[in-house]
Specification:
The structure is a single chain. The protein is of the alpha/beta class and 358 residues long. It folds into two domains: 7-39 and 266-357, Aspartate Aminotransferase, domain 1 (Alpha-Beta Complex); 43-261, Type I PLP-dependent aspartate aminotransferase-like (Major domain) (Aspartate Aminotransferase, domain 2). The protein is built from 13 helices and twelve strands. The chain has helices at residues 7-10, 41-50, 63-73, 86-97, 113-121, 138-143, 167-176, 203-207, 235-244, 252-261, 265-288, 310-319, 343-357, and strands spanning 28-29, 80-83, 103-108, 124-129, 149-155, 182-186, 211-216, 229-232, 300-304, 322-323, 325-326, 335-339. The strands form three sheets. A seven-stranded mixed beta sheet has the order 2-8-7-6-5-3-4, with helices on both faces. A three-stranded antiparallel beta sheet has the order 9-12-11, covered by helices on one side. A two-stranded parallel ribbon has the order 1-10. Strand 11 (325-326) and strand 12 form a beta hairpin. Helix 2 (41-50) packs antiparallel against helix 10 (252-261) and helix 3 packs parallel to helix 10. The protein is globular and about 55 Å long. The N and C termini lie far apart (51 Å). It binds pyridoxal-5'-phosphate. Pyridoxal-5'-phosphate (PLP) binds at residues 33, 85-87, 111, 155, 159, 186, 188, 216, 218, 224, 229.
């Protein structure tokens, strides 16, 4: 007899894993927007050293890491929330604010986790289509907010399109919203945005208690395998999300590695510059193949296949050992989302794609 599952839980969409296919050689994994580079050597050393202490539980408050983040961004320590990946912070926020009858507004296509937040709580997902040029439609999102809205998410840059909303636009949007609606600005890819905005915080993150900015060590810091994310939020938000999480959710090794990674900002900057160069190269090659792309500010491209068979291309690339994401798994058929790897991996991707397009 099958297990009896809570009806709300049974309705949750399964997070789509990228397929890796049976390929004999080295795979170019360009499906999950990870860093293709190992962490900084000092981070790897800190991880090894921390391995000797794992007979103890981690610091449940993550004090050392929160102190470092607070000082880097000139925030109070009580405004820094850590999570087992920024996903954990999103899940906890949904758990404490959503329920049947409540609404969550986000753009679509966007991060595949957002529909999950509504489904797992029984809340209603209000998905506001991106504009023709794959950008957030903030006026339409504002119009979608009503007295049932508890959370609005802006993914900036947006996954899977990579498009970026200027800070001034977000500021205006936030100021027009009722203050009891939580605005989550998901900045998982913010370090990849060109120009000076890269690391700056929205002013409303400091003076508006309803604003939460989530970020992660998974992407530019190369620590995806350790699961550590953080948020800038009000002490009240921190207090309520802590209630629903297990006490030691960010493990000891993750805390130590993330704290050490913050000692190597120059290395991070170099990686960003490397990724930006790859972005320029991949995008210009794609345009050379006649494929339009969204205006990405992230570490991936969103490619319009112009009516070609998406699955045939994904399968063809996989046969060459290049793993990418099909748009249909991300909310829009006829597209590919491809993360930037090393230059060799990117060349393999472009070569294989060119071959398939004939
Ligand atoms: C927009 C967005 N937010 C959050 C995350 C999750 O990050 P983390 O690994 O910190 O949970 C991802 C991961 O792909 C993402 O694309």
């Amino acid at each position: 007899m099958p297990l009896q599952i809570n009806k709300t839980i049974a309705a949750i969409p399964v997070y789509p894993a990228a397929s890796t296919y049976a390929f004999g050689g080295l795979l170019a994994k360009l499906a999950s927007n990870e860093s293709p580079f190992s962490p900084h050597p000092a981070v790897a050393e800190a991880i090894t050293a921390a391995g000797h202490n794992v007979n103890r539980y981690p610091d449940p408050t993550g004090t050392a890491l929160r102190e470092k983040l607070a000082s880097k961004y000139d925030m109070a320590e009580e405004q820094i929330v850590l999570g087992n990946g920024s996903c954990e912070i999103l899940l906890a926020a949904a758990q404490v604010m959503l329920e049947p009858g409540a609404e969550i507004v986000y753009a679509w296509p966007s991060f595949s986790m957002y529909p999950h937040l509504a489904a797992m709580t029984g809340a209603t997902a209000v998905e506001v289509p991106l504009t023709e040029d794959h950008r957030h439609d903030l006026p339409a999102m504002l119009a979608a907010v009503n007295e049932r809205t508890r959370i609005v998410i802006i993914c900036n840059p947006n996954n899977p399109t990579g498009t970026f909303v200027e800070h001034a636009e977000i500021e205006r949007f936030i100021r027009d919203l009722p203050r009891d609606v939580c605005v989550i600005v998901d900045e998982a890819y913010i370090e990849f945005v060109k120009d000076a905005v890269r690391d700056r915080l929205l002013p409303t993150a400091i003076d508006h208690d309803n604003v939460v900015i989530t970020r992660t060590f998974a992407k530019v810091y190369g620590l995806a395998g350790l699961r550590v994310g953080y948020a800038f939020a009000s002490p009240h938000f921190k207090q309520v999300v802590d209630v629903v999480r297990q006490p030691f959710s960010v493990n000891m090794i993750a805390q130590v590695a993330a704290a050490e990674a913050l000692n190597h900002v120059d290395d991070v900057t170099q990686r960003v510059f490397g990724t930006l160069a790859e972005r320029d190269w991949v995008e210009s090659e794609l345009h050379g193949l006649g494929l339009p792309t969204a205006d990405t500010q992230a570490n991936f491209s969103w490619i319009d296949l112009g009516g070609r068979d998406e699955q045939a291309i994904v399968d063809g690339l996989a046969r060459e050992g290049v793993i990418v994401r099909a748009g249909s798994a991300l909310g829009a058929e006829g597209y590919l989302r491809v993360s930037y790897g090393t230059h060799e991996e990117n060349e393999r991707f472009i070569g294989a794609l060119g071959g398939l397009l004939g």
